[in-house]
Amino acid sequence: MKKDPEVSAVIWDWNGTLLNDVKVSLLSVNQELAARNLPQITEGFYRSHFDFPVKDFYEKLGINFSKDNFDEMSFRFLETYFRNLKLASLHEGVTETLSFLKEKGIRQYVLSAMEQKRLEKMLSDYDIHHFFDRIQGLEDIYADGKLEAGRKLIHTEKIIPSSAWMVGDTLHDLEVARILGLQCILFAGGHQTPQRLRAEHDLVAGDFREIKNFFAGSLQ
Q1: Taking the CA of residue 215 as centre, how many other CA atoms within 13 Å lie in the half-sphere pointing to its CB?
Q2: CATH architecture of structural domain 9-21+88-216
Q3: DSSP labels for 42-73?
Q4: Strand segments (E) across the chain
Q5: Is residue 129 pLDDT above 90, yes or no?
Q6: Position 30 pLDDT exceeds 60
Q7: Bridge partners (DSSP) listed for residue 164
Q8: Residue 127, helix vs strand vs coil
Q9: How many Cβ atoms sit within 10 Å of the Cβ of residue 208?
Q10: pLDDT value of position 217
Q11: What is the residue extent of each domain of the chain?
Q12: Measuring CA to CA, which residue among 24, 36, 81, 25 is closest to residue 61?
């Protein structure tokens, strides 16, 4: 995390990155497993194995989609997720970091595979919506994923990828950033373990103080 970056915009992932919701997601996963008499998993196992596409992750846990409907399960997952959302909170240092970048005149965005209206409401509920120039989610839970949403965001906001940074918590975020031509920082406190992230990428931050200091290097 020593490089002083050129920064014109920062694109934030939501789940796991700004929002500490691993425990909430784990409850949803374990409910689906329990409904099929499959073994429950721990948070450590979840973070060590969670991956995209999520359908493949579920299949590795023993769910058989020749018998189960993935779309129906996704809907139930979200129902459980939102029932337990009170257990989630912003990661420590999020508001301070967002405020710092806004004060420096850096454009900030949220890019998420969550449904648009739900996403907007969550950001409003956590009182951080005002930090962002645009909040980019999906039109519905069955829409194209984060990559297409990212393309739409870059086109609509006329973002220059070479000086824009994506901050996410999974290797999928890294993949999206690379395809879109964005620089990327991975946050190690989300849905995948630091070991998995560092095996694939050099810029991995352990907390938001580290993220803030990284950007501060070129914004003094």
Answers
A1: 31
A2: 3-Layer(aba) Sandwich (3.40)
A3: -HHHHHHH--SSHHHHHHHTT--TTTS-HHHH
A4: 9-12, 19-20, 89-90, 107-115, 134-138, 164-168, 183-187, 204-205
A5: yes
A6: yes
A7: 9
A8: coil
A9: 23
A10: 86
A11: 9-21+88-216, 22-87
A12: 36
